[in-house]
Every structure is written in C-alpha cells, then in structure tokens.
Design brief:
This protein is mainly α. The chain has one domain. 55% of the residues lie in helices and 5% in strands. The chain has 14 helices and 4 strands. It has a two-stranded parallel ribbon with strand order 1-2. A two-stranded antiparallel sheet has the order 3-4. It is elongated and about 65 Å long. The mean pLDDT is 93.
C-alpha cells in the first residue's frame, strides 16, 4: 500500500483533471445526448461527468492530505486517509463477482462473426418513426434494412444488446442470452462486452483508481464509434464513414475492427481484475494480522 504525499496527490489530481477535460471537451449535456455515440455513454451508463472528474487514488493508495476524508467510502488509516476496510468488505461480493466475470469472459475464445447485426436487429421490421434513434434515417431504408438482417443473420451473445431487439428479431438470433447465462456467453470479441468494462470499473469506484475508470471510458467511446459506424443509421452528417456490413467487404472491415478493439480491451479487462484481486488479498492479509 503506497503513501501519497500532498505534492504527489496534487499532481495526480491536476493530471487527471487535464485528461478529463481533454476527453469531455466543452460539450453541454444536451449536445452529448443528441449525439448517438456520446448519448450511449451518458444515458445507458449511469456515471456522470462530475463523477468522472473526481480523482480517486484507488484502495491500494493512501493520501496524507485530508481532502478525501469526508468522501463516501473514505476514512483515516495508517499514514493518512484512504478507502475504508469496512467499505471494501461491504463490496467484497461485487469484487468477487466482477473478477470472476471478467476472467471468464477473457478466457473464452473470441468470436468475430456477428458483424454488428445487433444494432440492425433493434430496428428490424420497425417503422422509421419508432426506431431507437428516430432522428437519424436508415441508410438503406426500412425494407432493405430488414433484408440485410434476414440475409446476414444475427449471432449476438450479449444479453444487454439482445434485450433491445424488436420482437420480430428475437427468434432470428442464433443464441438466447439471459442475465443468468451472461457469464457463460459473454466473450472478448464482443463490442458491447468490451464497452461494459467501463461499467464494471465505475461501479467499483472509489476502490478502483480513477486512471483505470478513465481508461475504460475512452475505450468504450472508441468501441461505440465502431458500433455506430456499423449500424443501419446514416450518420454522414456527423462525418462518420459507415462500415457497410451489408457487403462482404464491410463485414471483413468490421471483423478486423472487432479484433483490433478486442486486443486493446484485453489489458483493461486484466488490469481491473488484477486490481480487484490485489485489494481482496490485501484486506484478507489485514484481517489475519488483526
């Protein structure tokens, strides 16, 4: 467990603030939720910009200054202030679940044959005015979009994408994911499973360091951009070049992007799981000493 003096704590907070400012820019909340890429990060996920801005050192570090002393989950410890042991123990079941879930997902063979059809299945056989992002037209129109879904097929393993399928699209999926089967089905090639690394990271704040949460956020944004580029929506007005998964060339491009992003996501997945294990091992050792 590292002791962080006031000077280093101030430097860390400053670096984090600069990084968050660069990531968030000057967009207002209204502008963010009007953007189909950004909206997902701020509506589907529940972490707010103000929470992303607050710097947490992580449970393995101790600050000598008292700025964190009144924050949720913090209290005095040897050498200064940090995340309280009883707070960590209250979250132990979550730490254990997330660690096991991420290890299981990471150890599974990656699949790259879905071609992003989950977004298409969410608008299958729906009128334009009823689709999830109704402000954005479908690139191919309703009938052609339906035909692509039927011809390419749907092979989605991720429950939190599958649950937004239209009723007509549900029986077309090669899998029947449920919340209970998520641990057995989530796999490291999945765009949405990799985006969810951000969810797991912020749910464990302030136990996890803010650097790790922000890494996962930036990763989720990159993934969401590919998600939307491969979607059935026409986002040309946003200068987003579509990945035309309705064509063989587009499906190859999507699978290559999927592999690249899966490779970039794996270190983040491992870092979160590793840190959780270190925290749990530390608290167990502390209990033994007591």
């Amino acid at each position: 467990m590292a002791i962080i003096d006031a000077n280093e704590a101030s430097w860390r907070r400053s670096v984090h603030a600069e990084r968050v400012d660069a990531v968030l820019g000057t967009a207002t909340h209204e502008e963010r939720i009007a953007d189909p890429v950004e909206a997902f990060l701020w509506t589907y996920y529940s972490y707010r910009p103000r929470e992303l801005r607050r710097y947490h050192p992580g449970a393995l570090d101790t600050f000598t200054d008292d700025e964190v002393s009144t924050w949720r989950g913090y209290g005095p410890r040897a050498g200064g202030f940090g995340v309280r042991l009883d707070f960590i123990e209250q979250r132990r079941s979550t730490l254990e679940f997330v660690t096991g879930f991420l290890r299981a997902t990471g150890n599974r063979t990656a699949q790259h044959g879905c071609f992003g059809m989950h977004e298409w299945a969410m608008v299958y056989q729906q009128p334009q005015d009823e689709v999830r992002h109704a402000a954005w037209p479908l690139r191919l129109g309703t009938e052609a979009t339906n035909k692509v879904v039927e011809e390419v097929g749907v092979r989605c393993t991720h429950f939190d994408a599958y649950r937004f399928f239209t009723p007509a699209a549900v029986p077309l999926n090669a899998f029947n994911p449920t919340r209970e089967s998520q641990r057995e089905l989530d796999q490291p090639g999945c765009i949405h499973a990799n985006m969810d690394l951000y969810k797991w990271a912020y749910k464990l704040s302030p136990i996890l360091p803010s650097e790790m949460v922000l890494d996962a956020f930036e990763n989720a944004r990159r993934l969401r951009e590919i998600d939307m580029r491969a979607s059935p929506y026409d986002l040309g007005s946003m200068s987003m070049e579509p990945i035309r998964v309705e064509t063989p060339e587009g499906r190859i491009e999507y699978a290559n992007e999927q592999r690249r992003l899966a490779k970039e996501s794996m270190p983040i997945r491992n870092a979160i799981a590793d840190y959780c294990e270190q925290v749990m091992n530390l608290t167990e050792a502390f209990d033994e000493v007591q």
